[in-house]
Write a structure and sequence with these properties.
The chain is an alpha/beta fold. It is built from 15 helices and 16 strands. The structure holds S-adenosylmethionine and iron/sulfur cluster.
Length: about 475
């Protein structure tokens, strides 16, 4: 337990996020009476003072801001970076953890590069900014490469461009590491039917506004969309066929191989979907069993073979680095099997330990070096197999303070994933728990709205949710 006090209070959240990177699984409270470590930070105009208390030891340290005249500015963000750099310096005296993302604590590092480019900065100026944030050279280069790929795909920005996300919050079983709010079998069929009726209502009510936009991409995700049976899938796909004709990309995140059948792939293909996911997570049977996925490696291979016959443009595969008991050899084996399947997209996640997940005791099992070695190997694998990183994001409590990287073979970058991560377009999300993002490019403004994450609340509040989303859509198109 860590007791954290910050003065002035306005810096609390940023410093909290930084402290959490050093002590990922500790409970951090404001001025708790019981604690293993007490940290008090006093933020001044020229320096940060840290008082810490551990067992009988009470000490105080000070660090002066390291200003950089070449990038000095009045921006709030510049000042808060100075503060965080000093806090990081002081925390490093207690714990030598390496933070490859420096003082960045957000989930969307690449978005910063887009913002700096939008302000007219050149590459050298951007690199200085990123170095100032103490981001590693490797990560800086990766951020810039990814930004260049993304800008070709989503710029120029358009106010009346829209992506549709449909959230299907059901799964065949709960995976041990996952904290997504999804429902598993028990009353599944009855709940799916209630859910689909509400989804239908939501789409119908918003359709007249949706039609006013250029529909860029559609993404049916979850959860596990292919937990729906053929009739249920048909309801969703038929509904979307009203708007899917001219989209740039249409994805069904099938995901779990134990839900994918020949008939489901057939109907998905018939409705024009060109991108699907078949997610192994690992190619080791023992791990699949221990994480609670009800499929084997053989199932993954069979489903892949089946899907290839339908000739989808892009198949994505998700993997996770850091699953329980897996080591570098396991990752090497998984990737060697993936090489044979050759998905056009490969998304490599670093395990993030979620409070809502069963899997809480993985932290501490790995040294930073082990996780880093696995990640480095996956980067090498990607390069050798002609994959390029095209999007990247971070999560809280991610092992080794690393990141998740989406790779693509050339021409297979997912536009939806870029839009969702970089927030360069409006995403209208329908379905329980779906998060919509309304984008106002002229003001560089974003508004988010989350549908209720509980079936009853989603159903009971659907009229309010439709109303709020309609208002945002009207504001965007100036209606
Ligand atoms: C929202 S899930 C949906 C995918 C689909 N339901 C499946 O499991 O195949 C998207 C991906 O997030 C990743 N993921 C989920 N929980 C994670 C965690 N705690 N740490 C790292 N990656 C995670 C998994 O790779 C998963 O495939
Ligand atoms: S990883 Fe996918 S299948 Fe597993 S519980 Fe999470 S959303 Fe469901």
């Amino acid at each position: 337990m860590i007791s954290l006090c910050v003065e002035p209070e306005k810096y609390y959240n940023e410093i909290f996020n930084l402290v959490r990177q050093f002590y990922p699984l500790e409970d951090i409270n404001k001025e708790g009476l019981k604690f293993d470590l007490k940290l008090n930070f006093f933020i001044g105009d020229e320096s940060v003072i840290m008082q810490y208390e551990k067992e009988d030891l009470v000490q105080e340290r000070r660090h002066y801001y390291e200003r950089d005249s070449s990038i000095e500015s009045n921006e709030r963000i510049y000042h808060s970076s100075l503060v965080k750099k000093s806090v990081k310096y002081l925390l490093n005296e207690l714990d030598p953890s390496f933070l490859p993302w420096g003082v960045l604590t957000g989930v969307r590092p690449v978005k910063i590069v887009h913002s700096l480019l939008d302000k007219g900065m050149n590459e050298n100026e951007i690199i200085s900014r990123l170095k100032f944030l103490e981001i590693s050279d490797e990560n800086i280069l990766r951020m810039i490469d990814i930004t260049n790929i993304q800008r070709n795909l989503v710029y120029p920005l358009k106010k009346d461009r829209l992506s549709i996300y449909i959230h299907i919050p059901f799964c065949p079983s709960k995976c041990a590491y996952c904290s997504y709010n999804t429902q598993v079998p028990d009353e599944l069929r009855n709940n799916i039917s209630i859910f689909l009726k509400t989804l239908y209502k939501e789409f119908e009510a918003l359709f007249y506004l949706i039609k006013e936009f250029e529909i860029d991409t559609i993404y049916i995700g979850g959860g596990t969309p292919t937990v729906l049976n053929i009739e249920e899938l048909d309801i969703v796909l038929k509904l979307l066929s009203n708007i899917s004709k001219a989209v740039r990309e249409y994805t069904v995140e099938a995901g779990r191989p134990d839900t994918i059948t020949y008939d489901k792939l057939k109907i998905i293909k018939e409705y024009g979907i060109d991108r699907i996911s078949i997610n192994p997570q690992t190619m080791n049977d023992a791990t699949l069993k221990s994480i609670g996925r009800l499929h084997t490696v053989k199932d993954i291979k069979n489903v892949f073979e089946m899907a290839r016959k339908f000739d989808f443009k892009t198949i994505n595969s998700d993997l996770i680095i850091g699953l329980e008991d897996e080591n570098l050899d396991d990752i090497k084996y998984t990737l060697s099997e993936i090489e044979k399947l050759s998905p056009e997209n490969l998304t490599i996640h670093t395990l993030s330990i979620k409070r809502g997940a069963r899997y809480m005791d993985n932290y501490g099992k790995y040294s930073f070096e082990t996780i880093q070695e696995m990640m480095d190997y996956s980067k090498l694998f990607a390069r050798v197999n002609s994959y390029k990183a095209y999007y990247l994001y971070r999560q809280k409590n991610i092992l080794g303070n690393l990141e998740n990287i989406g790779y693509a073979k050339e021409g297979h970058e997912s536009i939806y994933n870029i839009q969702m991560m970089e927030e360069r377009s409006t995403i209208l999300a329908l379905g329980m728990g779906g998060v919509s993002k309304f984008f106002f490019p002229d003001e560089n403004r974003h508004e988010s709205y989350r549908n209720f994450n509980d079936l009853k609340l989603y159903v009971d509040n659907i009229h309010d949710s439709i109303k709020i989303k309609s208002e945002f859509l009207k504001e965007i198109i100036g209606g």
